[in-house]
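Hi everyone, sorry if this is the wrong subforum. Our group has a chain we'd like a structural model of before ordering constructs, and none of us has done structure prediction before. Sequence below.
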Amino acid sequence: MNVISQKRIREAVARFPRHEGALLSWYRLVKTGTFENFAALRSTFPGVDKVGRFVVFNIAGNHLRIVSAVHFDRRRVYIREILTHSEYDEEKWKR
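Answer:
Right subforum, don't worry. Here is the predicted structure as tokens:
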């Protein structure tokens, strides 16, 4: 899959340095994965959910959320935001 954009991962690593391993691991798994549909994605990432039109990954022991748009037909994952659990619960990302 093509992850758009790696810049968001770098920014999150700078913001959440203790979760660098989890962020980079997620990035590598998505980048090298071949996910044809949501079920295939869930087989690799059991903590992934559909929330409206977005796909939300729970990573770093459920400390971070990666809010994304996944286009399986184009093999692209667009990262919208990387948030802490509490930031995610505020639901500002839905606007």
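For your construct planning: The domain at 2-94 is CATH 3.30.2310.20 (YaeB-like fold). The beta strands are 2-4, 48-51, 54-59, 64-71, 76-84.
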